[in-house]
Amino acid sequence: MLKLTVKSPKTTTIGTFDGVHVGHQKILNHVVRLAEKQGYAPTVLTLFPHPRMVLQKDDSIKLLNTIEERVALLKSIGIETIIVKEFTKKFSNLSAEDYVKTILVNEINTKQIVIGYDHHFGKNRTANITDLKKFAKEYDFTVEEISAQDIENVTVSSTKIRNALNEGKVALANSFLGYNYFITGKVIKGKGLGRTLDFPTANIYIKESYKLIPEDGVYIVKSRFKEEVIYGMMNIGTNPTVNGKTKSIEVHFINFNEDIYSSELKIEFLKRLRHEQKFKNLEALKTQLQNDRTNALDYMNNLK
Ligand SMILES: Cc1cc2nc3c(=O)[nH]c(=O)nc-3n(C[C@H](O)[C@H](O)[C@H](O)COP(=O)(O)O)c2cc1C
Ligand SMILES: Nc1ncnc2c1ncn2[C@@H]1O[C@H](COP(=O)(O)OP(=O)(O)O)[C@@H](O)[C@H]1O
């Protein structure tokens, strides 16, 4: 049987939107409003992996969000359709017109495009907004330009946020993001040492090697387990006191005692407490952990 699917018309914007920060949110809210006015579905076309990972084979690039996190953040601000196009060498060789015709028009059914005045696209990024307006007539869509002024008013950038996190400045990063920076990972087995210190620690494994992890150190964090909000103190580092070599991410949750092995946790960063240190023995480390706990409890009590 022949089945015809009619694709709903879309208001589409295009970008990486790494972090989906306050500047991105402003543009995306605009997209949602424009789409509403037209009766179109607000849509984001996003490329993954990052072009630099593919074209320069740069494995060192770190992103604020995994692709799953990016999709969830976009959904939470009202973007209905998210198209994740795999960015390959072949894709990068698409001419501007082929890209517009096959992807934006035929595949997505874009009726309106919202784009920055300085957007470049197509093979070698040679086409610009003037070209896009030319294609608009031919392929029956409209172009909404985001002006230079609107773009310059956005002083936040993904790079600034990455820099802040690389320096452990999570509170600053959070103010740029408009939400708390978070990681998503699975609780795995550690060395079983935490419990002997009376500080059991959930070791977090993040499968996406490109996810940016804040600077090594100790942080106050927040998570959820079975709908309950839980707070904790997280250490990111190599555990020099026990002569550790590999980097780990571990959290001791405060006033909490459950087996959470294999759980998937979303963990938000609230505040940095200190650097990771090498203590002369485990007793000294334990004393410091008790201090950290007091600091975390003070912080939690001030939230209420
Ligand atoms: C809040 C917190 C802070 C920590 N700070 C340090 C530190 O400064 N130096 C250090 O060597 N280890 C630190 N650790 C890690 C401990 O050394 C210990 O290795 C770890 O808790 C054992 O984890 P595991 O048995 O689950 O692998 C810290 C752990 C937590 C939870
Ligand atoms: N307050 C808590 N914070 C973190 N994990 C806890 C807590 N209470 C119990 N647990 C459980 O204990 C485990 C950590 O115990 P630990 O002795 O440090 O062993 P491991 O080295 O295998 O992580 C966690 O993965 C979790 O399942």
Automatic annotation (TrEMBL):
Q: Which reaction does it catalyse?
A: FMN + ATP + H(+) = FAD + diphosphate; riboflavin + ATP = FMN + ADP + H(+)
Q: What does this protein do?
A: Catalyzes the phosphorylation of riboflavin to FMN followed by the adenylation of FMN to FAD.
**Family the UniProt entry places it in:** Belongs to the ribF family.
Assigned keywords, A-Z:
ATP-binding, FAD, Flavoprotein, FMN, Kinase, Multifunctional enzyme, Nucleotide-binding, Nucleotidyltransferase, Transferase
Enzyme Commission number(s) from the entry: 2.7.1.26, 2.7.7.2
Q: Which NCBIfam families is this protein grouped with?
A: PRK05627.1-3, PRK05627.1-5, ribF
- Recorded protein name is Riboflavin biosynthesis protein
Could you give a GO molecular-function term held by this entry?
FMN adenylyltransferase activity
**InterPro entries registered for this protein in UniProt:** FAD_synthase, Riboflavin_kinase, Riboflavin_kinase_bac, Riboflavin_kinase_bac/euk
Specify the pathway. Answer: Cofactor biosynthesis; FAD biosynthesis; FAD from FMN: step 1/1; Cofactor biosynthesis; FMN biosynthesis; FMN from riboflavin (ATP route): step 1/1
* Residue ranges of domain Riboflavin kinase in the record: 176-301
Which GO biological process annotations does it have?
FMN biosynthetic process; riboflavin biosynthetic process
